[in-house]
Amino acid sequence: MSKTDNELNHLAIIMDGNGRWAKKRHKPRFVGHREGMDNVERITLAANKLGIKVLTLYAFSTENWARPKEEVAYLMNLPVRFFDKYMPTLMENNVKVNIMGYLDELPEKTYKIVQRAMSETAHNTGLILNFAFNYGSRREITTAMKELGGMIEAGTLKSEEITEKMISQHLMTKNFGKYQDPDLLIRTSGEQRISNFLLWQLAYSELAFSDKNWPDFDEDDLRKFVNDFKHRNRRFGKV
Ligand SMILES: Cc1cc(N2CCCCCC2)n2ncc(-c3ccc(F)cc3)c2n1
């Protein structure tokens, strides 16, 4: 009996290599970030065409605040540039935007544009473009533990009642229902690290790595990785 193809519903990408892309071209880092931003749109439309339901992109981690303040300021303005340039295309392609992270810590201008993008696309029913923005998985899990601990202290939960499903429902991906956990994680630039990204959700995900820097990762690359995933023998922890 032929093995049925794996369905790829949730794709996660660590979009690495933007600074290296710029350095190879003797350009400042922000040029790599800007090119990387434009590639977000290309890959979003390509993923939508491939029938992917959720595309989660690691845009800014809780550790990124340690970067030079000029670079952080530029990165905090990228959502403004992105939606100014691409909101019409996102609407034309029925893309729904979600941003997960500690958004209340963002600069007001950034906070307002991401909230507006989520509300303007709330009724779209196509691909969910989910940006991890000021996100960190260990902090996400710690926050979930505090919420559950509070329920125990309030007497509304007993520790023995805690289940894996309950923990999932206290994570930032809880609204993605059966698509909470990525089927595939791709990381670009040749680095092979998880970097505090979706640690709980990636428990049974397939991992794939591209040597290309993010701005060079194109639709053909995405199709090849998706096709390779569909023919993998997924285990989900079993033999
Ligand atoms: C911080 C950051 C960096 C960023 N880069 C481009 C992609 C590679 C990663 C580094 C630089 N991009 N690209 C798009 C966004 C974005 C984020 C939220 C949002 F609602 C809309 C767009 C973005 N945000």
Description:
The chain is an alpha/beta fold and 239 residues long. The chain contains seven helices and six strands; from the N terminus they run E-H-H-E-H-E-H-E-H-H-E-E-H. It has helices at residues 18-24, 29-49, 69-92, 108-120, 137-153, 164-168, 219-230; strands at 10-14, 54-61, 96-100, 128-135, 184-187, 206-209. A six-stranded parallel sheet has the order 3-4-2-1-5-6, sandwiched between helices. Helix 1 crosses helix 2. The longest helix has 24 residues, at 69-92. It is globular. The two termini are 18 Å apart. The model has no long low-confidence stretch (mean pLDDT 96). The ligand Cc1cc(N2CCCCCC2)n2ncc(-c3ccc(F)cc3)c2n1 is lined by residues 15, 18, 33, 36-37, 40, 59-60, 75, 78-79, 82, 99, 114, 117, 131, 133, 214. Residues 15, 18, 33, 36-37, 40, 59-60, 75, 78-79, 82, 99, 114, 117, 131, 133, 214 line the site of ligand V07.
Terminal CA distance reads 18 Å
SSE topology string:
EHHEHEHEHHEEH
* Average pLDDT metric: 96
Portion in beta strands = 5-15%
The biggest beta sheet is recorded as:
6 strands, parallel
Rg from alpha-carbon coordinates: 18 Å
Widest sheet: strand order? 3-4-2-1-5-6
Bound molecules: the ligand Cc1cc(N2CCCCCC2)n2ncc(-c3ccc(F)cc3)c2n1
Return residue spans where pLDDT drops below 50 for at least 5 consecutive residues: none
